[in-house]
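Review form for a predicted model. The reviewer records the input and the model, then writes brief findings.
Reviewer: anonymous (R2)
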Amino acid sequence: MKVHSSLTLCHSTYNIHLTSSHHIGFYHFTSLQKGEQPIFSTRAHVFQIDPNTKKNWVPTSKHAVTVSYFYDSTRNVYRIISLDGSKAIINSTITPNMTFTKTSQKFGQWADSRANTVYGLGFSSEHHLSKFAEKFQEFKEAARLAKEKSQEKMELTSTPSQESAGGDLQSPLTPESINGTDDERTPDVTQNSEPRAEPTQNALPFSHSSAISKHWEAELATLKGNNAKLTAALLESTANVKQWKQQLAAYQEEAERLHKRVTELECVSSQANAVHTHKTELNQTIQELEETLKVKEEEIERLKQEIDNARELQEQRDSLTQKLQEVEIRNKDLEGQLSDLEQRLEKSQNEQEAFRNNLKTLLEILDGKIFELTELRDNLAKLLECS
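Model under review:
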């Protein structure tokens, strides 16, 4: 009886586990359900543990994204969801076995056995981390209470069937149930002998055989009923044994998976110091990258200004180039005019040189004539004196 009750209870618990797992898997691969509303949101950088090394953190978002708690009132389930654009980078259902751990002033993590990963969140301040951890604990407790209520309901529904099956099994086939007890047989004889104080010798055997016949007919009907109940109980027990074997195999597989998961978690916990150091380095690297990003953004702004200035200079250069072309054309015209003037000047100089030469020649001739006239005057003057 105790074994039957224990196995039935395990069966109920296992059904609950399978149902919960089914719903949780459904949540992992579907979008938000009808009636599911966000109840708390914050912003953080999202990371996941490297599935190969189980040591390093792999960022799943390039920048801080919104991380929200969702509550599905129809299934009484709490989830943590984060989207990077249209991609779901966190889709974790909160269970009573989960634990959120603060590994630094601005970083926290939790393990999701169903997703077979560890999520990490980097916050901008310690206050945001503490608020997220408080909400995690609050919704974890709510999930635990919801699970306990669900188990109580399943136990209440399974208890009546256990009692009825147990009642059937508690009526074994004994000699008393076949032949009747001494108390059961005595009233029949007494009842048949009371109406007649002094029966005759021929009537007594007849009445006694009639009572025995009725008694055996009643016993036969009782045995047929018990036989039908025992047959039904045997069939039910046979079906339950097959089901229990299947459940036992499933429990063994689940135990092996949990053992492997515990081993992995022990390895992760043994490497916590290295992970913490790596996290610190990652945080420093992130800060350096953010500072570098700011510097690059400033440099981009400066380059944009330089590009605008370069465009203005290009426009000025085009304008100056056009003016220079006009000046060159005008300069060519002036060069042509200058060449013409030089030719004219050269011609004029040649004419002036020829004129000077002619003038010199005339002056020489004039000087000769003047000299001759002077001599002629002197001669005339001498002639006049002589006369």
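Findings: The chain is about 70% helix and 15% strand.
Further findings: Confidence is low (pLDDT under 50) at residues 1-31, 160-206.
Recommendation: see findings above.
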